[in-house]
Amino acid sequence: MMVGYPAAWMADRITDKQVELAGYEVPAGTPVLFSVYVTHRDARFFAAPDRFDPDRFSPQRKGEIPSGAYLPFGGGVHMCIGNAFALLEAQLVLAAMVQRFRVRAVSPKPVRPRPMITLGMRDPFHVRLEARTGSN
Question: Between vectors from CA 116 to CA 52 and to CA 20, what angle results, nearest 5°?
Answer without folding.
Answer: 75
